[in-house]
Amino acid sequence: MINIQKIEQEELSLKREELSLKQKELEFKHARSKAEIDKGNLETILLEQALNEIDGHVELTVHVIPTGPTPQTHDANQLLHFLSQQNEISRSMLSQRDQASLSKKHLEPFDGTNITKFKMFLYKFELLIESKCNTEVEKLTYLEQFTKGQAFKLVQSCSTCHPSVGYAKAKELLIAEYGNDFKIANAYLETLSDWPEIEPEAKDSLLELSTFLIQCQHFLENGPLGSQLDNPKEMMNLVMKLPFKARERWRIQTLDISKNAQRNVMFSDLVIFVQNEASLVRQPLFGTIVDATRRKNKPETTVKSKTRVTAAVEISSSDRLVEATSEENPSRKKRKRTRTECKSLLHVGLSLNP
Question: Where do the segments described as Disordered lie (predicted)?
């Protein structure tokens, strides 16, 4: 009984301490909030005083020719400068916090095999790497790190140059080799020309083509070979890679454009058409119209070769029945024969084939 009372007293004591700690925590939070409010009020008062002093100084300059900076003006300028620095530091800290919360940026190395990716690579490299390096040697080192293949060889050839010009020379070589607009435009056209044919209901293939056409249009519409995109022959070469049903729909759409809109069919029309085709087959509920279950359960038809057989006979020492079938007439039912009949058939067969 004594132990129970002791335990209860200890529990009450712990609860009192817990409540006391919570009360102190609330008092601390209240004091901190009050201090922040007082700090804000003080900054506001100081700023208002500084502005009032500046306004008073401006009013005095209307009637009095200034002979030099007064102590009050100097103090106000110092206060404004201090507050401006505080704001800059706060903005910088917020910007760094936002940058830290973002996911890590990834830069894929460039190997020179697909020159259509070069301009985006160069833009990302300048933004993520070049802008954060302090020396030209660092920039050249990182450029070597993020290039492979023939592009790496071009960059590495500038490693023996003077450090102050090596990076600039490497960028110049890369731009000359991979950044020429005519070369990039020609690479886009060659990729379209070599695009494989798309099977019916190939959702991913249609989406891939649609994405590439959008990328191609954005680069080529104002480029040196942009007019070639609107060439009907070039467009038809690309249309012939689409599934047959899509070609039929494209034929109807081109007639509608020529007859009703009364204008020429353009590459942008084809881009929108392929986009719609990709969206059509990728609908979440109604995009799939092929009955995969029915096609899977459909019985396979096999062709069997006909064999001319006179009789299939099995002879044993017992008097059991044997089966003889003829494949000349498949509709004929199997009939059981006795041992005596089988012997007669065998004798006839041997007499016909001496």
Answer: 320-340
* Nearby residues of 74 by Cβ (< 8 Å), 6 or more positions away: none
Q: What is the mean pLDDT of the chain?
A: 75
Two tokens at 231?
Answer: 């060439």
Q: Looking up tokens 């020609």, which residue turns up?
A: 186
Of residues 159, 156, 139, 143, the one with CA closest to residue 110: 143
Q: How many residues does the chain have?
A: 354
Mean pLDDT, residues 243-264 taken together: 90
Rounded CA gap, 354 and 345, in Å?
15
pLDDT of 340 reads 63
Residue 9 banded pLDDT, cuts 50, 70, 90: confident
- Say what the pLDDT of residue 50 is: 65
Average pLDDT of the residues in 174-184: 91
Sign of the four-CA dihedral 8, 11, 17, 21: negative
Q: Report the distance separating Cα 152 and Cα 174, nearest Å.
A: 9
For residues 75 and 70, what is the distance between their CA atoms, to the nearest angstrom? 9
Q: To 10 degrees, what angle do helices 163-178 and 149-156 make?
A: 150
Task: Check: CB of residue 155 under 8 Å from CB of residue 147.
Answer: yes
Per-residue pLDDT at 251: 92
Q: How far apart are CA 296 and CA 284, in angstroms?
A: 22
Instruction: Find the mean pLDDT for residues 161-183.
Output: 90
- Amino acid identity of residue 56, one-letter, is G
Name beta bridge partners: 147.
110
Going by C-beta distance under 8 Å and a sequence separation of 6 or more, which residues neighbour residue 108?
Answer: 121
Q: Is 83 strand, coil or helix?
A: helix
- Residue 147, classed as helix, strand or coil, is strand
Q: Based on the number of CB atoms within 10 Å of its own CB, is 336 exposed (0-12), middle (13-18) or buried (19 or more)?
A: exposed
Please determine, for residue 233, whether its predicted confidence score (pLDDT) is greater than 70: yes
What are the tokens at 53? 């002093």
pLDDT value at 308 more than 70: no
- Coil vs helix vs strand at 31: helix
Main-chain dihedrals φ then ψ at residue 14, nearest 5 degrees = -65, -40
